[in-house]
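For consistency, the fold was encoded as tokens, as this record shows:
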Amino acid sequence: MKKTVNQKAWFLVLPVLLLVGFSAVIPLMTVVNYSVQDTFGNNVFFEVGLEWFEEVLHSDRLHDALGRQLMFTGIIMAIEIPLGIYIALHMPKGGIWSSVCLVLISLPLLIPWNVVGTIWQIFGRTDIGLLGHTLASMGIDYNYTQDTFSAWITLIVMDVWHWTSLVVLLCYAGLQSIPSAYYQAAKIDQASKWNVFRYIQLPKMMGVLLIASLLRFMDSFMIYTEPMVVTGGGPGNATTFLSIDLVKMAIGQFDLGPAAAFSLIYFLVILLMSWAFFTIMTNIDKKEA
């Protein structure tokens, strides 16, 4: 007897497919179209092949922005991942104080990105900002609009304040999922705190740590609003990351062809790194299974 298959369920998925096509696929195809064309105006385009990709890949502008981006991403991940683990390990495991800590930890995540940038822009000003005025009164030369080191420190501290909470919450969830029998066995064996962390807590948190690393990499590699509000990419080009450089190229200079090629290269780098993280997570899950 032939089994009949009801295909009407596809009609429930159709609105989602149309929404994704309208909001993602169509704009992406438009960018691909611009990346292989050039124009002399009057909306008349002609094919240039991979000329824009070659120009972008060999430009010092891309290399410099990529170097700054990798440095920023590496620094904040090197700070936020260990700091998030440390805070999660020292949070209460239950009771009302656990709820209070979770609420307080989550507060920075509720603030919109542009508001975070505005807060730190005002906070770091030497005339009215609490941080800037305090450092200036202590004789410390701090000016994030003119000094490269101050600008980088401000952006790093701002990102750590904003996003370490995400790592903390994920690590805390991973720690809460560890059965108490593991701790009881470690107590019987008189294992030290370091051994408990190394052989019990860290392996059990590895899955959520990879998720946290993936999310923080993707977000930090695409960061735009906060540094744009605080420093505008300055002083000079000191904090001009890939996203800021791309916007300046596309909107400021209106170089649509190079900007389209730039954005596709940018997209492929993020996609490649996300695929690498996903592959690692899948292999870890297979080993644990």
Remarks:
- The mean pLDDT is 87.
- The two ends are 38 Å apart (CA to CA).
- The CA atoms of residues 60 and 66 lie 10 Å apart.
- The chain is about 75% helix and 0% strand.
